[in-house]
């Protein structure tokens, strides 16, 4: 996955490399895409639960994790192919959504609710799904659309500051 990426993953090559058999592989995984998703979940998790006491710092911490994840060759070389497999396999799509995407979005919702409890924001007035999209969109664009713009800490800061501006509070780095 790190060297050649998703398109080079073949069951025969995998079982030979790890010294097992096709039946053993298929007892554990439905497809190479299921294996790739499992590896990505194990490597990157679902995002760190964060509570620094500051909405800005909490979102920035998560955003930095996302940028690190999307900068990693494992994700970079496998995510586009995995997304295609997800598009064609409803079962895989459901696993991806429930075990990888939803927990990450729930982390953002928890951060927003904690900020609401600290009276930083009114979480009921915030479209959390849209906030999740605003945070992820620029990272995805820079990771997979070759425009030459870097995935870096400045992007993490800019996306978080944009979200805070949208919900009407000033960032305090």
Quick take:
The chain is mainly alpha-helical and 173 residues long.
Description of the structure:
This protein has 173 residues and is an all-alpha fold. It has a single domain (6-166), classed as Tetracycline Repressor, domain 2 (Orthogonal Bundle). Helix content is 69%, strand content 0%. It has helices spanning 11-18, 22-28, 32-44, 55-71, 73-88, 90-117, 128-144, 153-166. Helix 3 (32-44) packs across helix 5, helix 4 crosses helix 8 (153-166) and helix 5 (73-88) packs across helix 6 (90-117). The longest helix has 28 residues, at 90-117. It is elongated. It starts with 10 loop residues before the first helix and ends in a 7-residue tail after the last helix. The mean pLDDT is 92. Keywords: DNA-binding, Transcription, Transcription regulation. Residues 1-39 form the HTH tetR-type domain. Residues 50-163 form the Tetracyclin repressor-like C-terminal domain. This is TetR/AcrR family transcriptional regulator. It comes from Yaniella flava.
What would the keywords be for this entry?
8 helices; 173 residues; mainly alpha; Tetracycline Repressor, domain 2; transcription; HTH_TetR; DNA-binding; 69% helix
Secondary structure layout:
Layout: H1 11-18, H2 22-28, H3 32-44, H4 55-71, H5 73-88, H6 90-117, H7 128-144, H8 153-166
Tell me how many strands there are.
Answer: 0
- DSSP strand content: under 5%
Helix-strand category: mainly alpha
The named CATH superfamily = Tetracycline Repressor, domain 2
Helix content: 55-70%
Give the mean pLDDT.
92
What's the CATH class label?
Mainly Alpha
- Major beta-sheet overview: none
Overall 3D geometry?
elongated
């Amino acid at each position: 996955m790190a060297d050649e990426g998703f398109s080079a993953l073949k069951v025969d090559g995998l079982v030979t490399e790890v010294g097992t058999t096709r039946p053993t592989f298929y007892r554990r995984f439905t497809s190479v895409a299921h294996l790739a998703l499992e590896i990505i979940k194990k490597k990157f998790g679902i995002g760190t639960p964060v509570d620094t006491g500051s909405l800005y710092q909490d979102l920035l911490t998560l955003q930095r994790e996302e940028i690190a994840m999307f900068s990693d060759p494992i994700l970079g070389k496998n995510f586009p192919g995995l997304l295609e497999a997800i598009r064609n396999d409803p079962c895989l799509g459901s696993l991806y959504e429930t075990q990888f995407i939803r927990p990450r979005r729930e982390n953002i919702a928890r951060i927003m609710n904690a900020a609401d409890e600290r009276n930083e924001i009114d979480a009921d007035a915030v479209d959390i799904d849209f906030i999740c999209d605003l945070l992820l969109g620029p990272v995805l664009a820079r990771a997979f659309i070759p425009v030459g713009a870097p995935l870096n800490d400045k992007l993490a800061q800019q996306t978080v500051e944009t979200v805070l501006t949208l919900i009407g509070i000033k960032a305090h780095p």
